[in-house]
């Protein structure tokens, strides 16, 4: 989706104080029925300009395969659209950047981008993948662990400039929280549970 340049400029200005690099818009058709929301792009995604194109992307593609849908059928974005990094050293002692989880200020800095994408696409289904996306959209309660793989209907949080805080949308969305693909990479025992969740999502969002 083509984001308004003023919105991108604002997002870049607000993320500037933090150790973040690049800017990668979400991808997919503007009338997608399902929007998947991740955490933030990593090194690979910023390098090649495609969301979920690194190691987690292989797992993300397997989600779509299980759902029997293609990237062109869905919209994929994340809470933060720049790559948060931290400096570290390789075993050979070379200084380099490593991916890290975005913090709340970084999530706020890019909140207007995600809000815009949601308002434009108006997806019937929002699929937050992992805790960062889930809490960005639904806050801390109910806990993600209590609702993963379950259908909920709920408003979502959007950033309010005047209040300088999140407010709830008037509109309700169908929400289906799932594991972030990286969680499966690090814990293969979640794989079967994830397949069961995707069957549930397909039954509700695709076969109705
Ligand atoms: N994790 C995300 O949340 N998004 C990406 O594009 C890659 C990894």
What do these coordinates show?
With 208 residues, this protein is an alpha/beta fold. It has one domain: Uracil-DNA glycosylase-like domain (Uracil-DNA Glycosylase, subunit E), CATH 3.40.470.10. 39% of the residues lie in helices and 20% in strands. It contains nine helices and ten strands. It has helices spanning 5-15, 43-48, 55-67, 104-109, 111-121, 131-138, 144-147, 181-186, 191-206; strands spanning 20-21, 34-38, 75-78, 83-89, 95-99, 125-128, 152-154, 157-160, 165-168, 173-175. The strands form three sheets. Strands 3-2-6-10-7 form a five-stranded mixed β-sheet. The longest helix has 16 residues, at 191-206. The radius of gyration is 17 Å and the shape is globular. The mean pLDDT is 97. Uracil binds next to loops.
Q: Could you tell me the number of beta strands?
A: 10
- Mean pLDDT, as a whole number? 97
User: Within the largest sheet, what's the order of strands?
Assistant: 3-2-6-10-7
* H/E element sequence: HEEHHEEEHHEHHEEEEHH
Strand content: 15-25%
Radius of gyration, in Å, reads 17 Å
DSSP helical segment count: 9
> According to CATH, what is the topology?
Uracil-DNA Glycosylase, subunit E
| Main beta-sheet annotation | 5 strands, mixed
- Secondary structure class reads alpha/beta
Q: In one word, what is the shape?
A: globular
Full CATH superfamily name: Uracil-DNA glycosylase-like domain
**Each distinct ligand:** uracil
Beginning-to-end CA distance, first to last residue = 27 Å
Helix amount: 25-40%
- Briefly, what CATH class? Alpha Beta
State the low-pLDDT regions, or none: none
Assign the CATH architecture.
3-Layer(aba) Sandwich
GO molecular function: 4 iron, 4 sulfur cluster binding; deaminated base DNA N-glycosylase activity; metal ion binding
InterPro entries: UDG_Type-4/5, Uracil-DNA_glycosylase-like, Uracil-DNA_glycosylase-like_sf
Keywords: 4Fe-4S, DNA damage, DNA repair, Hydrolase, Iron, Iron-sulfur, Metal-binding
Protein name: DNA polymerase
């Amino acid at each position: 989706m083509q984001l308004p340049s003023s919105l991108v400029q604002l997002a870049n200005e607000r993320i500037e104080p933090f150790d973040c690099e690049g800017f990668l818009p979400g991808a997919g058709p503007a009338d997608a029925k399902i929007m998947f929301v991740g955490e933030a792009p990593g090194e690979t995604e910023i390098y090649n300009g495609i969301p979920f194109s690194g190691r987690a992307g292989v797992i993300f593609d397997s989600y779509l395969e299980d759902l029997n849908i293609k990237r062109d059928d869905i919209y994929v974005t994340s809470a933060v659209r720049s790559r948060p990094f931290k400096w570290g050293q390789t075993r050979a002692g070379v200084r380099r950047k490593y991916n890290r989880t975005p913090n709340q200020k970084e999530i706020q800095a890019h909140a207007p981008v995600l809000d815009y994408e949601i308002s434009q696409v108006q997806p019937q289904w929002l699929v937050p993948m992992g805790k960062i996306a889930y809490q960005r959209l639904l806050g801390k309660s109910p806990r993600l662990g209590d609702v993963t793989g379950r259908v909920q209907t709920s408003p979502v949080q959007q950033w309010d400039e005047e209040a300088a805080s999140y407010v709830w949308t008037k509109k309700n969305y169908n929400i289906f929280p799932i594991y972030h693909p990286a969680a499966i990479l690090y814990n293969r025992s979640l794989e079967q549970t994830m397949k069961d969740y995707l069957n549930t999502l397909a039954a509700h969002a695709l076969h109705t």
